[in-house]
Structures
1.
Amino acid sequence: MKDAAYAKINLSLDITGRRADGYHTLRTVMQSISLCDTVTLLEGNAGEIEVTCSGGAPCGKGNTVYRAAEEFFRSTGKKGGVSFRIEKRIPAQAGLGGGSADTAAALRLLNRRFQAGLSAENLRDIGFQAGADVPFCVEGGTALAEGIGEKLTVLSPLPECWIAVCKPPEGISTREAYAAFDARGRTETGSGSTERLLAALKIGSLPAAAAGLGNAFEAGNVPESVRAIKARMVSAGALGACMTGSGSAVFGLFGREAEARQCTDSLRSLFPQSFLCRPIRSYG
């Protein structure tokens, strides 16, 4: 059994505060894109969970897929042995949610394989134990995420477009990005990018959505390559460009395929991890 694990981008990302337990709260508009990993579920040894990955990603108990599978079996009472094979294409430390997408795909596969009959809400609850972005990745599409990622509101889809995605050589750890944000003495950001995105999606305007892109983490010490990639995308015809998540990948929204393809090819000559993508609608 196989499932596609689609990457996500943050069309907006506003930090709204910090909880007593140290977690930051967000308002972010998230969008699934066609760049994906492939997760395969095989029969395993009785009572065992095995996870192997290509591309140097963590395997075994160090992978969020393993933790989510443990929680699935605990929650459902199902018995069995499983082996997951993850073919990685989504870059790590990029803000593209690769690990979360893999985990969500694994939960969908487990639900089918063991005929557990869990609803999307059930899968989101299980996935949240493994990572804050997993609930969104269970169904994907276009959604507003609030709290620490667990509160989701389905939105009107991003208008049809082409998306150039480029990850520079430098990666950014999510933990380090939040630590740097805290070191600046801020508890929230007031860019309002999320409100602009919500308004743009409501009227179905790609130019308005592109003009509303924003990411609170860009105010920090991001690699210079992030700003250089954004500038190249805009000069190549992108309606707007932005870093996704805590970085370091950058995406640009294009209304025309030819411009997006030319931009992606040009970037790939400098940054091999460059991809031409489309928006993906919800799994549901």
Note: The two ends are 18 Å apart (CA to CA).
2.
Amino acid sequence: MQFQVLEQLHSFAIFILVGFLIGLLFDFFRISRKTFKTSDLITSIEDVLFWILSGLLTLFTIFKFNNGDIRIYIILGIFIGIAIYMLIFSKIVINTLVKIIIFIKRIISHLLKICSYPIQFILKLLKILFKPIKNLQKAISNKTKKMLKIKKNQNKSNLKKDFA
């Protein structure tokens, strides 16, 4: 009898930990929403993914540690674990991870700016090198347009002479 109670207490503690992990998983999705702007579709996909992962974690743990038996203390343990995490650790984890992610995003942004300088230099150089070609193309285009206008006007005046 005492062994059975100890086994149930052990399972209860494990399911408190599962609730804690579900709360942490929930916060990872909340953090991703705070740091990265996503569309409603992506948010819906994230929600479904959260529930699938939470369900799989819960089912795996029920089969691994409780032989697939669902007891009221399992559900209670999960809710207690979620509540403990949300009340004590959630704000700390979210604030810390959001600051870390924002810091990493800034570093990546600065690195991308630094890496873009050679590309910008090459583009400016190409623009300078191709400017004479572009000017030549414009000049040819203008001359062609003028020639076509002159030829068009000559054709009109020839037609007027023919009908006169």
Note: Helices lie at 2-35, 40-66, 72-163.
3.
Amino acid sequence: MDDTPQEITSLVGREVYSNSGVFVGEVEDLQLNLNGEAVTGLALGNLNGELFREEARSERGVIVPYRWVRAVGDVILVNDVVERVRDPDEEEDEVIA
């Protein structure tokens, strides 16, 4: 594995998918902890309208905690927990497993 440091700005513009292959959104910005010198979240835009109805409709983004990131490459893979960020009052058969 290549341990060469990379610019964190190289994450901006990458597509984000759940580890089961569902498109989540696109990285627009990063949330940083300047004291700890660490990335703490990915600010996503161009969201999957099925996962984030309200945010996509209002053109607001979401922040995905960086601890959910599973892998970074040409795309970013995050835990499937993102797929469960739905209104708990929705029908059971509409939830992506």
Note: The chain is about 5% helix and 35% strand.
